[in-house]
Amino acid sequence: DKANYRHFMAKEIHEQPEVVGHTLARYIDMASERVSLPVKLPFDFKDIQRITITACGTASYAGYVAKYWFERMARLPVEVDVASEFRYRESPLRKGDLAIVISQSGETADTLAALRYAKAEGAHTLAVVNVPTSTIARESETVLQTLAGPEIGVASTKAFTCQLMVLASLAVAAGKARGELSEEDETKLVHGLVEVPRLMADALATELQIEKLAHRIAKSRDVLYLGRGTSFPLALEGALKLREISYIHAEGYAAGELKHGPIALIDETTPVVVIAPNDRVFEKTVSNMQEVAARGGNIILMTDAKGAAEATVDSLVTIVMPDMASAFTPMVYAVPVQLLAYHTAVVMGTDVDQPRNLAKSVTVE
Ligand code: M6R
Description:
By secondary structure, this protein is of the alpha/beta class. It is 46% helix and 17% strand. It has 14 helices and 12 strands. It has helices at 8-14, 16-27, 57-74, 83-89, 109-120, 135-139, 158-177, 183-194, 196-203, 207-217, 231-246, 282-294, 305-310, 329-348; strands at residues 28-29, 34-35, 50-55, 78-82, 97-103, 124-129, 142-145, 222-227, 249-254, 271-275, 298-304, 317-321. Strand 5 (97-103), helix 5 and strand 6 form a beta-alpha-beta unit. The chain is globular. The mean pLDDT is 96. The protein binds 5-amino-5-deoxy-1-O-phosphono-D-mannitol. 5-amino-5-deoxy-1-O-phosphono-D-mannitol binds next to helix 3.
């Protein structure tokens, strides 16, 4: 049931602080402020030499964000691939490898095939899934469940942010097990995770501003999304979300790749959504924004108050996000990104929950 919302997607976006909170409570022991996984892992992260993450669509972007976290916090090399490529690539896997698959439905054909391949190659397999009775959950060695609850809208929203919460907790656990994070580091990171649901609730307050902006986006033929670091996969996700439900052409790019081609697309008619929390790569993103502004691009900047004050760039609109010190910004910045796609689709009058040509679960190749 849609409660009082017009679409399931709206309901699911608004549910996120709650369901991400439930997921957090399953993976963190609040009393000791430690990560505490609900299952015992059949391997020790100390023995893992490489992680491969495989998934499709939005779930693959969750995997891409997680790559940054695992590499930084656990110093573990991570490869991310879409399942349709991974399954036929015959990537050599070894016993010391961990293959992570991510899926809301747990039934995506390519992701399932990737899981079976990894298993046959002798790698440890771990699935991050939302449906615990699914085929992927049944067939993988370890299952980490997301507690998003049923997701009805074809566009994935709450499943994505819950996947990020599970993966963030797992990356902290890996960092700790490998001796890359001290107890103090872990406590700090756990504090960062614990505040995410509240920050997501604060981020929902951008909705009115985004609703207005959607009227402008709805008139565009193309929209670009830029981000660096963990905001890069979120830019890919923002573009996918917009294409999927509003049918407006959108692309996401790593901000630093701009000058290697995509900058040729910038003109006065193309809105450029820049996802730029004031993090360690913020200044670099600001210089990319300046390049966009110099070519007449219309910037929609998503940043925090400090970022807004420091960004010496004329933006069309600045969406001021809550301050956060941790590396877990993608969960919070996912909110305005999803809202922008949602309200644009509403203005366009498309079938938001069941966009044309798409199925909720892709069980055929
Ligand atoms: O059920 P899964 O998470 O395996 O589905 C993967 C993709 O099909 C899915 O995320 C798709 O990209 C969404 N419609 C995106 O909103």
